[in-house]
Write a structure and sequence with these properties.
Blueprint lengths: L1 H22 L3 E6 L5 E4 L1 H9 L4 E5 L4 E4 L2 E4 L5 E9 L12 E8 L3 E8 L5 E8 L2 E5 L1
Antiparallel strand pairs: 1-2, 1-10, 3-4, 3-10, 5-6, 6-7, 7-8, 8-9
Keywords: Signal
């Protein structure tokens, strides 16, 4: 029985943690203003979620734009900067633009957002945007 428990319990733990990730609900962790100040929640809690490998998403301007992140870094001033990569421009919900471009975002809990745009199929710079947003960060 002990041998069976040694095999069964780790497998059960693995299955519970891997499979539960798909049905877990997104939780709001922290909301930051354009100035980077915490409006609610805690930047430190966001760091903790990143450290344990949770999925992280953000929304800009109270839901105007949502995305998941692919990587993140903790800056020296206790802010997090995250990359949201490989977004393609669209002209509507079901339509892509005829002259489409990729956009790559660097989003920080300081409120700063840097977007770089590049033509699809050509190495042509379509511009850079640097601005600040109210940002809501989620984890699951």
């Amino acid at each position: 029985m002990t041998q069976l428990a040694k095999i069964f319990l780790p497998v059960l733990f693995l299955v519970e943690n891997v499979l539960s990730g798909c049905s877990d609900k997104w939780k709001t962790i922290v909301k930051t203003g354009k100035d980077g100040k915490e409006k609610s929640g805690s930047k430190r809690d966001l760091v903790n979620h990143l450290m344990v490998g949770d999925d992280i998403r953000f929304s800009l301007d109270n839901g105007l734009y949502f995305s998941s992140i692919q990587s993140a870094i903790l800056t020296g001033d206790e802010n997090i900067c995250a990359q949201a990569l490989f977004h393609i421009s669209k002209s509507g919900y079901n339509n892509f633009q005829s002259d489409a471009y990729w956009s790559f975002l660097n989003v920080c809990t300081s409120g700063h957002v840097h977007m770089s745009r590049w033509s699809v199929g050509a190495h042509t710079d379509r511009g850079q945007t640097k601005t600040t947003y109210d940002i809501t960060w989620y984890a699951r």
